[in-house]
Amino acid sequence: MPEKACGETCPLPEGAPSGEKVSGAPPQGAEVALFRISGMSCAACAARIEKVLAHLPGVSEASVNFAAEKARVIYDPQKISPQKMVEAIRKEGYGLEPLVSERARVAVAIGGMSCAACVARLEKALSKLPGVFEVSVNLASGKAHIVYNSKVVGPPDFRRAIEAEGYSFLGLTEEAPEAAAVAEEARLKGLKRRLLVAWLLSPFIFVLSMEKLFPFVSRIPLETRHLVLFFLATPVEFYAGWEFLRGALKGLRHRTADMNTLVSLGTLSAYLYSTVVTFFPEVFRGAGLPLHVYYDSAAMIIAFVLLGRYLEVRARGRASEAVRRLLSLSPPVARVVRGDREFEIPAEALVPGDVVVVRPGERIPADGVILEGQTALDESMLTGESLPVEKGPGAKVIGGTLNLYGVFRFRVEKVGRETVLATIARLVEEAQGSKARIQRLADRVAGIFVPVVLTIAAVTLVVWYLLGPEPRITNALLSFVSVLVIACPCAMGLATPAAVMVGTGRAAELGILVKNALALEEGARVTVCVFDKTGTLTQGKPEVKGVFPAQGRTEEEVLKVAAALERHSEHPLSRAVVEAARGLELPEAREIEAEPGQGLSGKIEGEPILVGKPDWVGSQARIPQDLRNKIDREASFGRTVVLVAKGSEVIGGLSLADALRPEAVEVVKELKTLGLKVFMLTGDHRATAEAIARELTLDGFLAEVLPEDKARKIRELKAEGHRVMMVGDGVNDAPALAQADLGVALSSGTDIALESADVALMRPDLRLVPLTVRLCRATLRIIKQNLFWAFGYNVLAIPLAAGLLYPLWGLRLSPPIAAAAMALSSVSVVGNALRLKKISL
After folding, report:
1. For this structure, is 729 an active site residue?
2. Tens-place pLDDT, residues 302-312
């Protein structure tokens, strides 16, 4: 058989799935057992094992993952033990070994983070816990993703560690997905109130402090003006600025420093100095110092930084809205059938097996299979495809999709976090919480940033006081405060996570599921795109276009012999041959064996039969010359040829064609425009591959490649210095997808193929491939821009605030301007990331 025949040594049981199933929650009293499987050679083996396990007494559900070689079984421990399952599978000729899973993953919502220093502190604290393997804290999403040994450590330990560092533990996001959103909303309201107070009072403070700009102010006695300023500035400092003061106090208790420390130290310095001047003016008069107060600096710093933080929190909410929008699609109630009556129950109360009625305009509450009725569903939220999808009895439906017309009933199969919708939301959330390699530098700098800034501010204060112009104490204080408030660790902490969040969220909206931030980086750097042919460049529905018998043979004989063997295979070409022979009485074939990537052998009435690739069949049977000419001619048209041999003689052949996807030519052209070389990988005859490559104007092709050799071909391309993107179906191409720098799997809406791929396309539309490249490049470009801005801003702003240019040109920054610049820097980083939302097909 040509490309993608995968050692079908056992027939696939009818209706049995070959891929992984996302299982439902175990029934009460049931247990879950995980096993490692050995001896499987194809998807049919996986299906057979799954069927055997599912039929054991006491087993309520079994799912087998062929690619991962694992099985998950939900069973009643009162009726069956894992050892019985092992024995049953060993009788089938496979190995089954219990798998003790100690590695767990959890996402924790955290409140109170304000900058990159918070991220570094939390990662350090959580990493110190025994049993924690990996920690990734995301400032933009306010979450920590932790991989840990569940037998050593758990969520209660994470809570203690987080709270010991002075932050809020808002719960596990899977248990209370709305916790973080509720906390963020409450924080936004609090910020708004404080912001209102700051901006109501700060303009009055500014006017009363600037008598040169507003001469009428000088009519107010100085002592009176200072007292008024004190009473106006105090609520700004201690109410509007309480979030910064509280954060700084927490840091002080834990002997750490962050952005809150910088802002609090800067504003308190100005405020307390001004308070002493207000209530003890004689001390300054006695020392010959001017009676200057800096309430305006303290108030305007808080007003600007609060404004920046408010805008930043709002923008971060927009960055993570993709996941919230997905989760909000699930309807709150479902109409369930009990006997002859319908009852409305909460959607979360549904269980697998329930029969649900859906009317026009309603969203589907869970995943399942239609039992009766015809409808059209809007699945755009899942696949990005705006056209309605017609559905009827037996078709799968996905929770959260919209029923456009028609009443139908469906049987619930998956609920809660096991639904496709929840799985997508979880995958997107995990991707948003992952870290790109390029972020490592920012993380290292963030860990030492605040102590370095505090040191620079202290040096600035001393230098200005000892060497600066008069009034020295005033200039020293203003420069000290400016350095503290202009430094912005926020921008560094948000530069990469904000772009990753928006990029992966936008990708999900377009029907592209990205596994992690590393995939975004790799996707931006690929130089070669390799397409699998069958089912990827082609539609995966081949048809028999012709039957050519050898002299003295008939078309019917050739077709019957071929179909007798091919009906035992699940390969697309095999199905096409069987379909062509529909209505014919097929002889019984015995001793069928599959030669992966080549074809099938067997016996009919004791006579050896071969059906498969011309080279493979021709190596064991004689091919008449007239058939050789026919093979070459069919291959030149881009058709696949299958030969049929009886005994030592080839009795004829079949030509099959799988139509190219209509968008294939356009996609190849666009990938070339993006600067990529485009190749095709196929198990087909060279002439067939050459014809398709010519039609698509490919840069090259690799023909007659066996399934097991695909990964080796990818390795060879990488060894030549190429960064390779492999596009396949996610099942047969799993090794090649895993070997590529970026593996892209074409999925259906109900099958998320991220086992071995880095990116899953949620609909079989090749136009999503160049869109993936464009999105990855745009995201990496935004990350680099953000990091350049964050580092460049701090490198330039801190020396300017310290007064480094003052001796040359008399340039220096006042604290309010420094605060405005700092607020602008973090907002601009998030705003720049939000530009990714504009990317479209």
Report:
1. no
2. 888 888 778 77
